[in-house]
Each structure stands twice: as C-alpha cells, then as structure tokens.
Design goal:
The complex is a heterodimer of chains A (about 220) and B (about 290). By secondary structure, chain A is mostly helical. Chain A is built from eight helices and no strands. The longest helix of chain A has about 50 residues, at about 115-170. The chains are: A mainly alpha (about 220), B alpha/beta (about 290).
C-alpha cells in the first residue's frame, strides 16, 4: 500500500509542488476584505484547496491514461482504491496541517482563530472527509473532466432548483428546512456536549468514507482500462 | 515448474462491435509464443485480460498455475509487461519511474535498469513527453526487463522501433530465454519479428483463436501453393487454410504441403510459408477475393 502512495508522490511531485503552492497562498485572499471571515470559513477554504491535491494526482493519472500502468503493477484493484483513500487523507491532511500551521505565522490569520480553534479544526476534518468521500469515487469513474462537469452540473442544478423554489414560492420551505436542520444539530451539540458532538461527527465522516470506499471499489473493479 | 506458464480456458469478452468467444490458449514455459493477427483481431484484448486490465465475462486464466484474479498481485509480480502504448504521466522521467516502480518488485535491480536505459539509449532525465514514440517504448521495455520477470507479456513491443533496435531487442530476449524458466508472449502484427524468434505461433482473428502451433510445424508442414486458378481443384478442401486470387493466379495456404505436392504434380510451385503469408492468406484472403 505504501508503495502505491510513494509512487504517487514521486510521479506527482511536480503537480503537488505547483498545486500545493496555490493552496498555501490562496487562503490569504480571504483576508483581503475589511471584515475577516469566521475561522470556519477560512478552514473550509483551506480544506477544499488541500483536498484537491490528492484528487489532482488521481486526475493526472486519468488524464495520461496511466491508470492502466498502475493496474499492471503487482497490486490488486482493492489495494489501488484503498491507497487512493489513505493517500488522500495523508496528502490532504498533511498539507492542510502545513498550510494552517504556516498561516498561524501571519498575525491576521492568527486573529481568526480567536473565534474558536476546536470548531475550526472539526470543520477542517469534516470538509476533508466529505470532499474525499464525494470526489474520489467520481474522479475514479470519470476523471478530472468528469469531476469538473459534475461540479458545474451540480451548480446548474442548484440554480434551477433555486429558480423553481422562487417561482413556486417554495423558498420559504427550503429556508425553514435548513433552519430546522441547523437547529437540530445545535440542540444535539448542546445535548451531548462538545466531545460527544465531535465523536459523532468523526464517526459520521468515517462511515461516509467507508461507504465511499465501497462504492469506489465497485466502480474500479469492473472498469475496463 | 509448471509445463505451461499461461493457460486460458473458455474466455469471453464483448465490446460493441467485437466479441471474443470461448478462447483457449496455452503458452508453454521456457518458450516464445508469438500472437499474431490483424489489427482489431483481439490481441490486445487477450493481453489485457491476462493482466486483468479488463474484466472477462466468462472463462479462466491461470498464470504460473495461479488464477490471475485470485492471485493478482503474486501473478503480476512475476510478469514483465509492455503495453502497446506506454502511458506514464508526461512530466516524469526515467529516473523517477525507476524510483517509483522498483519497490513493487522483489527482483528489481536499479543497476540492471540503468544499464538497460544506457543500452537502449534512453536519457534518464528527459521527460516522458519529450521522448520519441520509439524511446517511450524502449523505456517501457527497460522497466519490463529490469525485474527479472518469469513471463514477459509484450503487446506490440516493437511498434515504432527501428529495424536495428528491433533486432537488438530480439537478441536481448533470446539471451533472457537461455534461462529455461523464462517465457515470452509476444503480440505483434509485424510478423517478421517472430519469424526466427518464436517457438510457437498463435493466430487470432475476429476474437477467435484460429490455430496455435509450433513454428517448426508451420515452416515444415505448411505450404503456399501458387498457380493457375484450377490448381484449387487438386487440393484437399479441408487442408486449404486460405486462398487469395490475384491477377497472376491464385495462392493457397495448405496445412499439408507434401500432400498438396503429390496431388498437384511437380509443375505447381509450393513454397514454405512466411508468417506474413499465413497472416495475409488466413485473415485477408477472402476480402482480397471480394475486392477483385
């Protein structure tokens, strides 16, 4: 397994350096407005940028049809899929830790964390877990182009739903549903306390990643290269 | 040591417009088996099935006596694989590839890899996309040969290579085969590569194995009968494997040259068939007749 992650790091080191530099610099854009964002938004942004690093490696392999080469190595497809997830967490988590730590050397970023570090870190974990769980199966199946089309498609779908809600007067219902969900999370948080809440979130992300891994395995096992 | 390094039984695979039906094939240990056939016949499909790069719909594939799906990693660890279109990330070089791939193989030798790169003239630091097609193939060959594989599975390995290098490569493979445990399955439509090199020839056409024979049988027993159109009347029909009609008469490929000689008489020319003759007469003969 480690050999596969190592291979990706060696063969993708140029991509990692270029995209990693962007992930390091881009979050500072958030500091440009007069009113700085809440720390959760900052961490979400960093998390998204960092998750794109391992996804970029998978997409690069797809782009050059190098997946067949990877599958010709003495590894099973299960190993390859598992390495995508472990490597994803390793690369995205590691780079996120580096970006956040380096961000702390800048006073303006340090100030953001006064809002609450634990909430920010939990948000970072959630965005990492959610993005990996959603994006990896999609990228394994459709490559980077498919992912981009998928994201654009989701945006278009969102806009269509929004317009439909506006036209049918259902926007209030959507707002109420979102508010109810947020309130439910809030009261659950109050009920179980911060540690119980964090444990539930971590468990939820872990289960989601397990389901995503199973789906990726199913997709990749039957894929012709 | 197994008698056969590779056994394929009843394998099926369908694509839109192509079907591989109940393919059986045996590749004996310690020999070179040449897989020939026209483009689109199923050579690459067969090689990909062995490597589990595509899923089969039915059948069994044993490599080194092991099922290639149940023992996928163990099987692939002993295969040196060359893909018809080497596909590595474009911004990597031979040195990076060696560092990345080496740890997967117990028998990998960095020294041997560097020596092969040197012999093949592949620059270690040049990016893959900057290499010519031929150089890319040489790099793929160096990788396949650097881990002392027991089976070399090569899909069109000489595509894009100049004649001189092709000859060097075949000599290199011949040297490897001095070790009797090593075997080669070599798919190509450049039949001249196999003429002197292959011990067995398998012809695949439209997803079906037409024959799989020792090369010596083809060379010694088969023949190409050349003569006027009525020469076909003298031949034993089941013995005729392909016919091509041209402006100067007919060419017929027969599986029993001595029988054909007896039947046709001394005035008819019967030559030893080249693999090109076999390939053309058995795969394009009919369409040639139709088009004329």
């Amino acid at each position: 397994m480690w050999n596969l992650i190592r291979k990706d790091l060696i063969l993708g080191h140029r991509t990692l350096i270029v995209n990693g530099s962007m992930a390091l610099v881009a979050p500072f854009i958030l500091l440009l407005p007069d009113e700085p964002p809440p720390v959760i938004l900052y961490v979400l942004y960093v998390g998204l940028m960092c998750t794109m690093l391992p996804v970029g490696l998978i997409a690069k392999e797809e782009k050059f049809s190098a997946t067949a080469f990877t599958c010709s190595l003495p590894m099973t497809r299960r190993d390859i899929v598992t390495s995508r997830y472990l490597g994803g967490w390793f690369i995205a988590g590691g780079s996120m830790a580096v970006v956040l730590a380096l961000g702390l050397t800048v006073g303006a970023v340090r100030d953001l964390w006064s809002d609450g570090a634990s909430g920010g870190l939990l948000a970072g974990f959630v965005i990492l877990g959610l993005t990996i769980a959603i994006v990896i199966p999609f990228t394994i199946r459709f490559g980077m182009n498919g992912l981009l089309f998928g994201l654009v498609g989701l945006q278009v779908l969102g806009m269509v739903m929004f317009l439909l809600a506006l036209a049918t007067g259902g926007l209030d219902a959507v707002e109420r549903a979102v508010k109810t969900a947020v309130d439910a999370v809030g009261s659950y948080h109050e009920g179980v306390g911060p540690i119980g809440f964090a444990a539930t979130v971590i468990l939820g992300v872990a289960v989601l990643n397990w389901l995503s891994w199973k789906a990726s395995l199913r997709i990749f096992r039957t894929r012709d290269l | 040591m197994e008698d056969n390094v590779l056994e394929i039984r009843g394998v099926r695979k369908r694509y839109p417009g192509f079907a591989m039906r109940d393919v059986d094939l045996v590749v004996p240990t310690g020999h070179v088996t040449g897989l020939i056939g026209p483009n689109g016949a199923g050579k690459t499909t067969l090689v990909k099935l062995v490597m589990n790069l595509i899923t089969r719909e039915a059948g069994e594939i044993d490599v080194f006596g092991l099922d290639n799906l149940l023992h996928e990693a163990a099987v692939k660890a002993r295969i040196g694989f060359v893909y018809d279109e080497p596909s590595f990330p474009h911004d990597v070089n031979a040195r990076d590839l060696g560092r990345a791939i080496g740890p997967f193989y117990k028998g990998w030798s960095s020294e041997r890899y560097r020596r092969l790169l040197g012999e093949f003239g592949v620059p270690e630091r040049k990016r893959f996309k900057a290499l010519s097609k031929g150089m890319q193939m040489k790099l793929a060959l160096a990788i396949a040969l650097a881990h002392d594989a027991d089976l070399l599975l090569m899909d069109e390995p000489t595509a894009g290579l100049d004649l001189e290098f092709r000859r060097d490569l075949l000599e290199h493979l011949a040297a490897i085969l001095e070790d009797e445990r090593k075997s080669v399955l070599f798919s190509t439509h450049v039949t001249s590569d196999l003429e002197r090199f292959a011990d067995f020839i398998t012809l695949i056409r439209d997803g079906e194995i037409v024959f799989s024979l020792p090369t010596s049988d083809l060379r010694d027993a088969w023949g190409v009968v050349r003569g006027a159109a009525d020469v076909l009347d003298h031949l034993d029909a089941p013995d005729v494997r392909g016919v091509r009609t041209g402006p100067n008469g007919v060419e017929a490929l027969v599986a029993n040259a001595s029988l054909a000689r007896r039947r046709c008489g001394p005035e008819v020319v019967i030559d030893r068939p080249s693999l090109d003759d076999v390939l053309v007469l058995m795969t394009r003969g009919d369409s040639y007749v139709e088009s004329h």
